[in-house]
């Protein structure tokens, strides 16, 4: 059976994230939330994170500031700040596999993670999680992303979708309709990540996926 994994980036967004949680609960779907450190520090965000965690969703690291992609500079201090400080903010709410998703666009490669970042993640035992279905939930009209997501899914054995709490929350009925349609078309919705989207697992790189030159360049 073809699979679908749903993930939410750039939260938490108190209010909107709760609407997403309600929609997921109404369909018995477990998902992952890749949260940003700066957002975790905002008023009310801690309570939202607690609720995400209590519902059984996975909380994952999506950098401290969501600034320039970590592949764009070799500043080791910035790597530790962006990854490590966000992980510290998550603390015990983090999934034990320390899922980390770099910010940036396109397929996995050097533009997303510098050699310094790869070395830092390996030393810290992180699992790097990418994506293979980004339907553009920011594109107007905002309720059109499910059609693009489903079109991509049709060509994949296991789709890892990226959407955003602050965009989907205000129109959560779009999310429930999407889930219903995916299931009606025969997709099984799972919480795990497809192996093709985890180039590093608990600190170990899959040589079949990661650009080997990048790993060799790591200090
Ligand atoms: Zn992001």
UniProtKB/TrEMBL annotation:
SUPFAM superfamilies recorded: Glycoside hydrolase/deacetylase
Domain NodB homology, residue spans: 2-190
Transmembrane segments: none
A molecular function GO annotation: hydrolase activity, acting on carbon-nitrogen (but not peptide) bonds
Any GO BP annotation: carbohydrate metabolic process
PANTHER family: GLYCOSYL TRANSFERASE-RELATED (PTHR10587)
Reported function: Is involved in generating a small heat-stable compound (Nod), an acylated oligomer of N-acetylglucosamine, that stimulates mitosis in various plant protoplasts.
Similarity field: Belongs to the polysaccharide deacetylase family.
Protein name in UniProt: Chitooligosaccharide deacetylase
